[in-house]
Amino acid sequence: MSNPKIGIIVGTTRPTRFADKPVEWLTALTGERSGLDFEVVDLRDYPMPFFEEPVSPARTPSSHPVAQKWAAKIASLDGYIFITAEYNHSISGVLKNALDYVYPEFVRKPATFVAYGGVGGARAVEQLRLICIELQMAALRAAVHISRDQFAAVLQGEKTLSDFEVLKQQATLMLDDLAWWTKTLKAGRS
Ligand SMILES: Cc1cc2nc3c(=O)[nH]c(=O)nc-3n(C[C@H](O)[C@H](O)[C@H](O)COP(=O)(O)O)c2cc1C
Q1: Which residues form a coiled coil (predicted)?
Q2: Over 90: is that where the pLDDT of 1 sits?
Q3: d(CA 87, CA 84)
Q4: What is the per-residue pLDDT across 81-140, written as a single tens digit (0 to 9) for each?
Q5: Of the residues 18, 43, 84, 86, which should be mutated to test ligand 1's pocket, given the most ligand atoms within 8 Å of the CB?
Q6: pTM of this prediction?
Q7: Ligand 1: distance of its center to the CA of 86 in Å?
Q8: Residue 24 to residue 171: CA distance in whole angstroms
Q9: What kind of architecture, by CATH, is found in domain 5-189?
Q10: Domain-by-domain residue ranges, the chain?
Q11: What is the per-residue burial (b if ≥16 Cβ within 10 Å, else e) of 156-182?
């Protein structure tokens, strides 16, 4: 039987975004694991207009071709790791817009988070957990929070994320928990 698939969803799209650092770091860590397959899903590859559909995707799928491609990608995955910044104490507009375009494809799948910012992206993650619950995902407690000092040191080129053993420990706990939820919910859905 093939491994469950996890999408590492890159939640910001600015040309100079920090997000690529945690994506690169997490991809190296996931490469050391077995039992799950990981794939980076970059919102830059899904440039959707601001949502203005006649009805919610909970009822009717979008007819926009990029949104359909995005929904098909989400449907193909068994769990999600959101790489999220904190924009004004919440998630980025581009991530919220992308989440609004999809509904049934997320249902009964686990979601966890790698966040960065002044307070480790914690305020963004708290909001993202609520959104995930509304989309009927299982939002996990275990997550990675890249703190202000760690974020600043990496941004200034003084350190890399792999210099912080504590982040690796957080990631191990998060990935262990994600593996359990992904396999359990996949079995339940089938
Ligand atoms: C519009 C905007 C709002 C921001 N608001 C916050 C905030 O509320 N809390 C915080 O910790 N950082 C905030 N920041 C700083 C971001 O954490 C930092 O710019 C980060 O690099 C953004 O992620 P990105 O580089 O992947 O786009 C904000 C940045 C932007 C552009």
Answers
A1: none
A2: no
A3: 9
A4: 999 999 999 999 999 999 999 999 999 999 999 999 999 999 999 999 999 999 999 999
A5: 86
A6: 0.98
A7: 5
A8: 13
A9: 3-Layer(aba) Sandwich (3.40)
A10: 5-189
A11: eeeeebeebeebeebbeebbebbbebb
